Amino acid sequence: MSTADIRAVIRGDGGRFVYVVSALAALNGLLFGFDTGIISGAILFIDTTFELSPLVEGIVVSGAMVGAAAGAAVGGQLSDRIGRKRFILLSAGVFFLGSFLMAVAPTVEVLVAGRMIDGIAIGFASIVGPLYISEIAPPAVRGGLTSLNQLMVTVGILSSYFVNYAFSGSGSWRIMLGAGMVPALVLAAGMSRMPESPRWLYERGRTEEARAVLRRTRDGGIDSELSEIEATVEAQSGNGVRDLISPWMRPALIVGLGLAVFQQITGINAVMYYAPTILESTALGSSQSILASVAIGTVNVVMTVVAILLVDRVGRRPLLLVGTGGMIGSLTVAGLVFQFADPTGGMGWLATLTLVSFVAFFAIGLGPVFWLLISEIYPLAVRGSAMGLVTVANWLANLVVALSFPVLLDGIGTPMTFWLFGACSLVALLFTYRVVPETNGRTLEAIEADLRGATGLGADASNDD
Length: 465
What we know:
Elements: H1 3-10, H2 13-25, H3 27-37, H4 39-50, H5 54-82, H6 84-104, H7 108-136, H8 142-168, H9 173-178, H10 181-191, H11 198-203, H12 207-217, H13 222-235, H14 241-244, H15 250-265, H16 268-280, H17 286-314, H18 316-340, H19 347-364, H20 366-376, H21 383-412, H22 414-435, H23 444-452
Helix pairs in contact: 2-7, 2-8, 2-12, 3-7, 3-8, 3-10, 4-8, 5-6, 5-7, 5-21, 6-7, 6-10, 7-8, 7-20, 7-21, 8-17, 8-20, 13-23, 15-20, 15-21, 15-22, 16-17, 16-19, 17-18, 17-19, 18-19, 18-22, 19-20, 21-22
C-alpha cells in the first residue's frame, strides 16, 4: 500500500471521521493498559492497609487476569449478539464499576471482587477494541487504525506508572485504583454518539443502516464494499460456533492461538509486571528502578507508534519477523548481562538497556500485530467468538507467566529465565515464518474468501492491491 493510496483514503470527510471513531474506540485499549499496570504501584501501599500475606497479594494481583480470561470467554459471543457499539458501552460500565469498588473497598474480599470485575472489563476491551475498528476502517488504513488500540494499551500502561508515581508520596492506593473511572466515563460518553459496525449491521439484515455508516466513513467505493459484504454473508452456513471448529477454520485458529500464546510466553508481561523487582537485584535503588520502568514504558509507546506508521506500508509479517528476531537477541544479551556483569559496575543500567531493547522489538511486532491479525483473519459470522477464544488463550498464558516468573527466578535464576524466554521467541519466529499470513491491504471479505476457498490462509497470500 503506497503513501498516495493511504492519503486518498483519508482526504475526504469520511476518511477524517473514521479516524475520530477509531480514536474513541481505542480508549478500550487505554483502559486495558491502565487497569493492567496500575496494580504494580498500588500493591505496595495496599499491603500497609490490609497486611496481605504473599498468597493473598498474589490473588489481588492475578485477580484481574482471571477476570480477563472470563470476560474474553463470553465477550466474543456477546459482541456478536448485541453488537460492537453496545458491547463497548457495556465494557465501559463494567470498567467503572470495578474501579469504583476497588477505590472504596473496605475489605480484601471486596478489593479482590473489584479486581475481578475490572478484569472482566479488560477481557471485554481486549476483544472489542480491535474488532470494532477493523470492521469500520477502510482496508488501506485498517492496519494503522486497528493498531491504535495497542498504542493506547501502551499509553494506558505508561499513564498508570505516572499515576503511581504521583500518589506514591501519600500512598493513596485508592486514588490510584479509582482513577480508572475517568477514562471509562469518557469512553461511554464518546461511543454513545458513534455508529455501529457496518458489517455487523449488514449481517443482521439492517442493510440501509450499514450503507449509512459506510457513507459516513468512506469517500467512495461503498457499493463495491457492500457487494463484498453481501457475498460473504450469503456464503455463511449459519452454524455460528459450529463453523468455528470446522476444518476450513483450522488454519486461522492455529495462527490466532499460536500467536496468543507466543505473545505471552516470550516474557513481555514478566518484564512489564516485574521490571522494578528485576532491576532492584542490580545496583539500582528503588527510585532508580521505578524511573527505569517509566523509561521502559515510554519506549513501549514510541515503538508502537513506529509500528502503526509501518504496518500498512511494509505489512504484518515483516514486522513480526523483525520484531521477534530482535527479541531473541535482546533476551540472549539480557541473560549474559545477569550472568557475567558486575553488579557494582553499571550492571543496572546495562540491564535496563537490554530490557528496553526487548520491549522495543516486542512493540513493533508481537505487541500490535497479534491484535491486528486476529481482528482480520476470522469470518464475520464467528469473528467475535473466534477472537474471544484466542483472547482467552492469551490471558491464560499471561496468568501462567505472571505466576511462574518469580518461581523461575528463584529456581533457575535470572539468566536462565531470560534464555528460556529467548528459546520461546525462537520457536515463535519459526511459527511466524511457516504459518502466519500477510493480510496487508486486503478487505476482510477477501481474506475470508481465501480461508473458505482453495487458496487457503497461507503465508504467501497475495495482496488485492
